[in-house]
Amino acid sequence: IEDVGVATDWLRANAEEYRTDPDHIILAGHSMGGFAALEGAARDPKIACVAGIAPADMGANAAAFEANPEAMAGFMAYADSLQMLHGLTGEKIVAEVTANRAAFDLRALAPKLEGKSVLLVGGDKDTSVPEERVMKPLIAAYEADPAIDTTAVILSGDHSFSWSREALISTVIDWADGCRG
After folding, report:
1. If DSSP codes are grouped into helix, strand and coil, which group holds residue 114?
2. Of the residues 38, 63, 91, 122, which has the fewest C-beta atoms closer than 10 A?
3. Residue 141: partners with Cβ closer than 8 Å, 6 or more residues away
4. pLDDT at 146
5. Which of 76, 33, 68 is nearest to 51 (CA)?
6. Which residues of the chain have pLDDT under 70?
7. Could you tell me where the DSSP H helices lie in 44-164?
8. Are 164 and 171 in contact (CB under 8 A)?
9. Edge-to-edge, what's the strand order for the sheet holding 149-155?
10. What is the rounded CA–CA span in Å between residue 154 and residue 126?
11. If you ran DSSP here, which 8-state letter would residue 133 be given?
12. What Cα–Cα distance (Å) separates residue 71 from each residue in 28, 34, 77, 89, 136?
């Protein structure tokens, strides 16, 4: 989450060099990146548009880990395989998620996303961020807050949107084109 803030601050500070508009940065992320994008947008009042593509709800994951030790063990093994995240271990991430269960609950971010445009995209065959357990409650929480401009789309797709990438790309581009924050 802190990295999102550092990256947006850097982009704003270097906007002229990279020909970007520092007042119109859109955050978008997939899976754990979707979690980080939503959390980052909730902390940055200058971000008006954020997209969570199959966003991992780490607060909901903490509850799932508590209810299902096998799910927790599987997630820990997966986290141990993420070599691109230096220093991350399954044990560390589960401890952090468990300790911050309430703070990492994406549904609870709704009040902090008021005034923003939020795109939520899920896959109907996603077993990592399941439609019923994660996406529908998240969508419902954001749609229940009239101060959030929520766009929610469930595509035919797995977690990687393997067979629906063109639809995913069109969905994100169409939303971003209309998002003027």
Report:
1. coil
2. 91
3. 106, 107, 108, 110
4. 97
5. 33
6. 180-181
7. 58-67, 69-80, 90-99, 136-143
8. no
9. 26-30, 49-53, 117-123, 149-155
10. 10
11. I
12. 27, 20, 10, 16, 20
Distance between CA atoms of 27 and 50, rounded to whole angstroms?
Answer: 5
pLDDT digits (tens, 9 = 90+) for 51-70: 999 999 988 888 888 888 88
> Rounded distance, CA 59 to CA 32, Å?
12
Percent of the chain with pLDDT over 70: 99
Enumerate residues 6+ apart whose C-beta is below 8 A from 169. Answer: none
The residues, ordered by sequence, that sit 6+ positions from 176 with a Cβ below 8 Å of its Cβ are 26, 28, 49, 51
Contact by Cβ (8 Å): 65, 22: no
Token code pair at residue 9: 């601050």
Residue 120 forms beta bridges with which residues?
52, 152
Q: Which residue type does 135 have?
A: M
What pLDDT shows up at residue 180? 67
Q: How far apart are CA 61 and CA 56, in angstroms?
A: 8
Buried b (16+ CB within 10 A) or exposed e, 2-36: eebeeebeeeeeeeeeeeeeeeebbbbbbbbbbbb
Report the C-alpha gap between 142 and 118 in whole angstroms.
8
Residue 121 near residue 53 (C-beta atoms within 8 A): yes
